[in-house]
Amino acid sequence: MTGIVKKSFDAADETRPFEDGKGRLDLVSGARGAVGRAVFEPGWQWSKHVKPIAGTDSCQASHVGYIVSGHMKVVMDDGETTEYGAGDYMEVQPGHDAWVLGDEACVALDWTGFTDYAKPSG
Q: Which range is the signal sequence, renumbered to this chain (predicted)?
């Protein structure tokens, strides 16, 4: 086993496109699990562009990550809301919708919630 691992999101182990070409999820896998980089294009919304893939009423992933660029709004099923922007650390529990704010893609890195994200259910 090597003590150093190097991977690139530009040559991801797996890429999952979102509906209507509104972005993608790039996953790299390591001994400690997968890390994802999502590119959410302007106009992207979970309930429009991932819900048809996931088959759940709201996003059921738990996210711990970092916003690299762009802006996103997250609304929990109970109505709690926040906005994230470039440089923000995020923690989001299951049961939410989200969408891109503005005309810039939102790029996010996630260490916990992207393993099964945008993966067909069943």
A: none
Over its C-alpha atoms, the chain yields an Rg (Å, rounded) of 14
How many C-beta atoms surround the C-beta of residue 92 within 10 A? 21
Q: What is the dihedral of CA 112, 114, 116, 119, to 10 degrees?
A: 170
What DSSP string describes 21-83? G-EEEEEEEETTEEEEEEEE-TT-BHHHHTHHHH-SSSB---EEEEEEESEEEEEETTS-EEE
CA atoms within 13 Å, Cβ hemisphere of 61 = 25
Separation CA 14–CA 26 (nearest Å): 6
Question: Which residues have C-beta within 8 Å of that of residue 29, sequence separation ≥ 6?
Answer: 13, 14
- pTM more than 0.85: yes
DSSP letter for 59, please.
B
